[in-house]
Design brief:
The protein has about 150 residues and is α+β, with helices and mostly antiparallel strands. It has three helices and ten strands, in the order βαβββββαβαβββ. The chain has a single domain, classed as 2,3-Dihydroxybiphenyl 1,2-Dioxygenase, domain 1, CATH 3.10.180.
Amino acid sequence: MQQQQSEPKLPPVYQLGYVVKDIEKACRYYESVFGTDPFCDIMDVDMSGAMLRGKPIETKIRVAMVNSGDVQIELIQPLEGENLYTEFLETRGEGIHHLGYMVEDIAAFKAAYTKKLGEPIYYHDMGVMEFAYFDASEVGGLMIEFLDFTKSL
């Protein structure tokens, strides 16, 4: 008798991802208005090789992060090429883009959420970490992102 594999349970929210037009301005705003700790150094990230709707893309983004309690706030500014974040800016403007969940078995989450929401809309295995976005925006307007950092351990 075969045992059915149970669906993986979502862990607590790890990250709130915001898409912004000017990351330096956004960092200063959050620090001064909301009193967050200083954001980490702003990093430019080459996302070339990421898959957007099943097609490889060449793109670069700029990111900055800070923790608010147990939740990481991630600011994302698109720099070059088309990506999920440029689409968001074009259709919705700046704002909260996704909820991120840190998982240890991204394959299990991708399989479970592909059944619920279709294929990942945006995906990349960067060697030290892997991420997959699913479009859960039908209700509430947000994407969900699964992040797996276990490769770097």
